[in-house]
Amino acid sequence: MGLVGHRSLILASGVALCATCMTAPAMAQDEGTVAGQPTLLQRLILGFGRPKVATDTPTAVTVLEQDDIDEQIPETAAELAEQIPGVNAAGSDSNLLGQNFNIRGFGPQEIGSNQEGRNAILVDGATKFYESYRMGGLFTDSELFKRVEVLRGPAAGTLYGSGVLGGVVNFTLKDASDFLEDGDTAALRLKMIGDSNQKGYKASAILAARMGENAEILAAGNYTDFQNIVAGNGEELLGTQSQLPSGLLKGTFYLDEAKERVFRVSYNRTDGEGLTSASTGGTPVCVNSSHSAPFPDCYPWATADNSPQLIDRNYLDETAVISYQDEASDNPWLDLNVNLSYSKQQNGQEDFLNADMSYAYYEFKADNTFEWTGDNYENYLTVGLAGKYHQRRRDDLDGTSSNSHPEGNETAFGLFAQNEYIWNERLTAIAGMRIDWHQLEPTGSTLYNSGGTALRSPAPENVTDVAIAPKLALHYKLTETLSVFGSYAYTERLPGIDEEYDWSASYVQNDLKKERANSFEAGFGQDVGDLFTAGDQFAYKLTGFYNHIDDYIVRGGTGMADWVNTDEAEIYGVEFEAAYDAEHVFANLAASIIRGNNITTGEALDSIAPNEIALTLGGKLP
Q1: Which residues are registered as beta bridge partners of 337?
Q2: Could you give the CA distance from residue 73 to residue 327 in angstroms, rounded to a whole number?
Q3: Closest by Cα among 161, 111, 159, 155 to 136
């Protein structure tokens, strides 16, 4: 995991200080928690017909709230994944390289992988992706988030897109209501984090204001300025510095007295510039790619031809979202959500690839939930549709053409339905189906040779295909505290632009088949109170999973296309998570064992993370 994995050791001798000044009363109680002292497994999960805690869901899901984020003081979003089983993140200790997420073995390797679509990374419903084999996919400042919801397994594909084999990481941005209590008209929060090792700081200012009874505005600004990490031997780890501003402007408007009809509009942006290693997880050395002379402060073992080298990069991450929500508590046939979003990630690498590369997403999603109940049952049917237009661009500053970043457009439409049936408060059955249509269109340097004048021969063609994703999940309460669950999902993943059009001298198009996966999941969980002391709470969940993938897309070898379908692959594993909370102490445990094999070749998949265990112990002052 590159420098991320070593940060705790490197900074062991440093001192971190977090101070909050001129603040309003404590953040308003989040509605996503249950009464009492909720543990990590007792947060309300909102992606079902009826909100429920994690131990009552038939799938694996973990939620981190604002308090969890504040306790970690994360420098990057990747650090939030450390306490979630089956989820790994890689990247630099700054946002300059972005962050990669690997869920249950699906996700990018350190280099050489695209993986678009196998995991969905969302910010307020907007897709975040950047080509993984030289960069991470998420650059947004973690200081803007108030909630992170991680759904593991392909069952999430019904609501978030066919092809989601690993899972979904859904980040929620802060709202003005998080800082405003009843009767408040405005609140100001100032926050600063200092680091004695990197000799820098991260400053944050949030202003929340209530404009009458039906409007709330939030404006947030952050600035990070950290120098290079200093190792125990006194040497600087070049490429670990971070200087970046970020900001969020968000408005919430209530259209009725009950505040059930809500209109939201937001825009957030993060910029960055600095020296980084050439790829995620790489060890930066003391040579810039455009200079042969080493930097003055250097590792003793670094040489002029070491690889990867330090690269001067600048990036932009911006997101705009317009959403409408109508809960209509007096109408069981109306619970409407509509989301329009624009998302763009752009990275300038003039010093390395002499090109600016960008990804833009224009997306639409709408769904409605119909509810009907009887004496001993409840039923929630959610139906919806989604659309996406994706532009992938490479602006070659010297007019040349390269196969390392093919250009293209993707147009996609999807229809989905999910039905949740609850019988006698014991049995929950969730069935879902999704159908997605998409078309890939090659553009720019994918179609033309250097200079944009000569069409490649033979020219790459458009690709049109359809993918489906049905699922069935069951959850049954054996007792009031002990439950068992299981699920089956079939998922088809369509190739991405990079995989289909990453060309070489012999191949202008890879003619890939869609991936087809059969996935099984089973486990049990328990949620008990008053275990050791009055009012304490303990919960745990054990999950086993198995995925069999046909036509799995992998990197081609010598003499082959850059991307090829292998016949079969499998990924399987076990996850365990537990949480305990009492008046003065708390503890969280997350562990995972994952294995993966290319069945066709007999080789292990290189996207599988090692066995992991994470334990958090803490105390509370009276």
Answers
A1: 325, 367
A2: 34
A3: 111
- Which two structure tokens, joined as six digits, stand for 231? 């190792």
Tell me the CA distances in angstroms from 281 to 134, 304, 559, 576, one per residue in order: 10, 20, 28, 27
- Residue 171 and residue 181: Cα distance in Å, rounded? 23
Please tell me the distance from the alpha carbon of residue 110 to that of residue 250, in angstroms, as a whole number: 35
Give the strand pairing for 60-64 and 229-230.
unpaired
126 closest CA partner among 358, 327, 317, 383? 317
Residues 354 and 398: beta-carbon distance below 8 Å: yes
Tell me the C-alpha distance between 379 and 525, whole Å.
Answer: 23
- Check the CA dihedral 87-92-95-98 and report its sign: negative
How much is the pTM? 0.85
Element (H, E) at 9: helix 7-10
Give pLDDT, residue 177: 92
Q: Residue 551 is encoded by which pair of tokens?
A: 């036509």
Tell me how long the chain is: 622
Residues β-bridged to residue 249: 219, 267
Scan for tokens 């049954």, then name that residue: 476
Angle at 329 between CA 323 and CA 333, to 5 degrees: 80
Closest CA to 248 of 353, 320, 303, 177: 320
Q: Span 127-137, mean pLDDT? A: 69
Phi, psi of 497 (to 5 degrees): -60, -45
* Integer Cα distance of 104 and 60 in angstroms: 11
Q: Which residue has the tokens 């009887």?
A: 374
Distance CA 370, CA 328 (A): 11
Residue 497 is given by DSSP the state H
| Residue of 257, 16, 3 lying closest to 110 (CA atoms) | 3
The position carrying tokens 């209501």 is 177
Sign of the Cα torsion 301, 306, 307, 313 reads positive
- Residue 536 in contact with residue 64, Cβ under 8 Å? no
Across 173-208, b (16+ Cβ under 10 Å) vs e yields bbbbbbbbeeebeebebebebbbebbebebebbbbb
Query: Is residue 36 very low, low, confident or very high in pLDDT (cuts 50, 70, 90)?
Result: very low
CB atoms within 10 A of CB 222: 20
Residue 18 has pLDDT above 90, yes or no: no
Q: CB–CB of 392/432 below 8 Å?
A: no
3-state SS record for 43-83: EEECCCCCCEEHHHCCCEEEEECHHHHHHHCCCCHHHHHHH
The residues, ordered by sequence, that sit 6+ positions from 411 with a Cβ below 8 Å of its Cβ are: 388, 389, 390, 438, 439, 441
Q: What is the pLDDT of residues 311-343, one digit of tens each?
A: 677 788 999 999 999 998 899 999 999 999 999
Contact 348, 313 (CB under 8 A): yes
Taking a C-beta distance cutoff of 8 angstroms, is the pair 493, 514 a contact?
Answer: yes
Q: Measured between alpha carbons, how far is 593 from 608 in angstroms, rounded to an integer? A: 10
